[in-house]
UniProtKB/TrEMBL annotation:
It holds the Pfam family FhuF. GO terms for molecular function: 2 iron, 2 sulfur cluster binding; catalytic activity. NCBIfam families: Fe_III_red_FhuF, PRK10647.1. This is Ferric iron reductase protein.
Length: 264
């Protein structure tokens, strides 16, 4: 049955005393994922002790660490083409797509379909990296944002953008090889796709509100710029990504099926 905004808001209106008997937030999210996207649990670890080698944004975004991870990732992608000149922009674009592609859908589901609000600030999330240097698993320290229970679905989504995505994009683009706009363009496509994936759970009214707010509102509700504004555009009667993600510039990586570039 679809979870409507009205149902969630009704839940939020209950006094805290009626919420204290619920299962811990981590257990509730585990059940949510198990029911709707069980594979999330292979990537996201809820409330478990993070491995010693995992890192928060403050650690993995340090220049020496980030560039080392990207270099390892480049070694993997260019291993069959050692003479091919490496391009940092498409390489970092792909790296960022791994990060966002693995963590953003689980966080969106948590923020939009669980009545309580997960604090998804970057300091509460550790990343474990694959041997090739790309993000592989995420370990989330479970902290409920008790002050946010009454937030609407739009406010919850904007909380994800502000608490997690903006710091991550800044952490990547600070190294100079990639413009943050490219990461946001990729992320806008990802988030719109996943909204479609959970459309029946959200309900049509909530889906329409979030789609409009995500892609077509120039500002967030606090008046700051919306970094996802027009990251997808209406072309030929359907929403399409604004720009190419540049992945085709890496050897042996084909264009996306919906690449914005003209066929070659």
């Amino acid at each position: 049955m679809a979870v409507s905004t009205r149902q969630i808001d009704k839940y939020h209106s209950q006094p805290p005393i009626f919420l204290q008997g619920n299962r811990p937030l981590g257990a509730a999210l585990h059940t949510l994922y198990q029911q709707h996207r069980a594979y999330f649990l292979d990537v996201v670890k809820l409330g478990e002790a993070a491995p010693a080698e995992s890192m928060t944004l403050a650690e993995w975004s340090r220049p020496e660490m980030f560039l080392s991870l990207v270099e390892r990732y480049g070694d993997e992608l260019y291993r069959n083409h050692p003479q091919h000149p490496r391009e940092a922009k498409p390489l970092q674009s792909l790296w960022a797509q791994w990060y966002c592609g693995l963590i953003v859908p689980p966080l969106m589901m948590a923020m939009l379909l669980e009545p309580r609000v997960l604090d998804c600030s970057v300091q509460h999330i550790h990343v474990q990296f694959h041997s090739t240097g790309r993000p592989a698993q995420f370990w989330i320290d479970i902290h409920e944002d008790g002050d946010a229970r009454s937030l609407t679905s739009r406010q919850r989504l904007e909380r994800l953008i502000q608490q997690h995505l903006i710091p991550v994009v800044k952490g990547i683009e600070q190294h100079g090889a990639i413009n943050g706009k490219l990461i946001w363009n990729n992320t806008g496509y990802l988030m719109h796709w996943f909204l479609g994936e959970i459309r029946t759970l959200l309900g049509e009214e909530t889906f329409a509100v979030l789609e409009q707010a995500l892609l077509f509102a120039p500002q967030l509700l606090d008046g700051s710029d919306n970094p996802l504004y027009r990251t997808m555009l209406l072309r030929e009667g359907e929403l399409q990504r604004r720009s190419c993600c540049q992945r085709y510039r890496v050897p042996d990586i084909e264009r996306c099926g919906n690449c914005t570039l003209k066929p070659v």
